[in-house]
Amino acid sequence: MCGRELHVISNGQSELERFARIASLIHPYVTAFHLREKSCNAKELWLAVLALKTGGVPLSKVIINDRVDVASAAGVRGIQLSYHSLEVQVVKRLFPGLRVGRSVHDVQEATEMCRQGADYLVYGHIFPTNSKPGQQPRGTKVLEELVKKVPIPVIAIGGIIPENVHQTVATGAAGIAILSGITESDNPLKSVKDYREALDR
């Protein structure tokens, strides 16, 4: 696999058992799987991690959103934080073994998260997407400006399909994150291969 990252994110609407089954099939092509399940409690997230592990997904590829307690207890590689989460600097101090990502929405926020010690950033949405109806996409030009301002990897998210992967990573972005383009596909294995091929070009 080349250096560009491919993150696959659960959408909080499908069954986690199905997500785990798909992840077990496609994980050789994927850098990270995010459990982005705002309605799940700690035990449900724990069981989801176990399902991923049972399916052969390395814990080094598992990232839990927001719940740093579960991430630490389950022994996964990373935590993804947002504006309502604990501060990056707090998580880095208390859980130094976790790779800490932070979702950001502008250059100022990105710069501050770098100062706090974030290991990578997730930025978007880049293109129009059904998950953000009526909201103006930020586009690749702004993405490129942000990438140039920060010294850590930036993962682009939002409306990314295989056909626009090249223009996305041409900005200098370290990779892409996909919410439904793979896990909601009729053929997830073909879809993940399409994304990986586009990233590796």
From TrEMBL:
Pfam families: TMP-TENI (PF02581). Keywords: Thiamine biosynthesis. It comes from the Bacteria. CDD domains: TMP_TenI. Gene3D superfamilies: Aldolase class I (3.20.20.70). Pathway: Cofactor biosynthesis; thiamine diphosphate biosynthesis. Residues 8-182 form the Thiamine phosphate synthase/TenI domain. This is Thiazole tautomerase (Transcriptional regulator TenI).
